[in-house]
TrEMBL record:
GO terms for molecular function: medium-chain fatty acid-CoA ligase activity. The lineage of its organism: Bacteria, Pseudomonadati, Pseudomonadota, Alphaproteobacteria, Rhodobacterales. It comes from Sulfitobacter sabulilitoris. Signal peptide: none annotated. This is Long-chain fatty acid--CoA ligase. SUPFAM superfamilies: Acetyl-CoA synthetase-like (SSF56801). Belongs to the ATP-dependent AMP-binding enzyme family. GO terms for biological process: fatty acid metabolic process. The keyword Ligase applies.
Amino acid sequence: MLDLGTSFIASVERDPGALAIAEGDRTLTYADWFIRISALVDGLGQMGLRKGDTLVTAMQNRWENASLHWACQLAGIVITPVNWRVTADELDHALRDSAARVLVHDDAAAEAVAGSALVSGLTVLTLHGDHGLAAMLSGRAPDALPQAGPEDLSVMLYTSGTTSKPKGVPRRHRAERAAAIAHVAQNMYGNGERTLGVMPLYHTMGIRSLLSASVIGGAFICLPRFDPPGALAAIERHGVTNLYLVPTLYHDIVHHADFTPSRVASVRKLGFAGASMTDGLLRKLADAFKPDLFVNHYGSSEIYTFSICQDAAAKPGSAGRAAINQRLRIVPLGAADASQTCAPGEEGEIVAAMQGDEAFEGYWNRPEADRKAIRDGWYFTGDCGLFDEDGDLFVTGRTDDMIITGGENVSPVEVESCLSLHPGVAEVAVVGLPDPRWGKIVTAFVRRDGTVTEDELDAHCRNSDLSNFRRPRRYVFVREIPKSPVGKLLRRLLVAGDYEAEPTQNTPA
């Protein structure tokens, strides 16, 4: 298995004149980009960084950020990207936990950097200025030589923490490249494809897009910060051929006033991950894009790919079969190991084999987290799901999100998909709220499209295939559904009452 630095050089040699990266008016071929990246590798070395050192970044999806990622792969530096919306405390946790030597940031993270208690002891590199990242990229140096091998660490991602500090997920060059190769194969990417680089480079999906583009001599079209008009303009201008986004971004694009099918005619392949997609959105995307391929990619930062469904619209909700580097099982909730499995149709926890080529080997300095998540060579995902009679996987939510009402288990995803089919529902999130009789009641938080009422939504559920005990007993109309920076529903905020509601409606009986 090649290390990533050697892999990138192979791409340069194979397709030197192909478009490699673009951002607005700036476009660079592979040959041109390698010149810039080599200068950056030299600049990092002059700063005293050596193979095995850790560099933390807090940047938007600029071409400079993508360049830095590749420079670190060539130099053997462990790049540790964090959310550019990071707080000072969150930044300090990453800096301390990763033993970082250098911090690189742009203006988006300036406030957190100013409030950090640790940056005074580090080398800090900004985007602009005489000695900034942009200046280093404009220098000249001999072509960079790979300094890392397949077994060296490539990147460390931090998982989003809810009740505890985020956990570091260190990943080796061989696992990163294996994941990129699998991503190309499972999404059927061809030579020279162009992808919209809007999923953040602190997230597995952003890195996957960046690395897989290089494998096929393709282009990474940077969009520093997502907005639907900007995304549509970039797709149209650069002839983007595939999209790999979270469902929220698809929703915002296809529902925007500027959207027309002609503006995205170059896009032939759709892929989504990071969250489930409602039936309503699946149908709308299939009608609007008419893609040749529509992939549901289910995975995580730790493993990357669990399963793949290559025709998502044909079987809504299905996450397909185990990926080419993976084995999956469903075990009873609370199982101590992976030896006992659930029957088809029986819901349990999804577990994934750790011997897959894409897998990590354990969390960074968190043995207690390893003991909880890794058991006898299997990774316990914390996700609920089931295999249907065809052997296809359905992910029904997080184990912590499962609603137990009157002794019955209710999956929020199933209820959300049902409600999403009503034309008056723009977005919906379902949670369980405490109830003295039922323990929890199924509660739907709805952002309306128009003036739909609770009674209309309740009638819609009654007339659907949704079981009666899964029917929401309460509706809350909200101005926005809270989400993470990468578009995941933040159900915990709804449970905690952290939302802005519209006037209360009547509760269905």
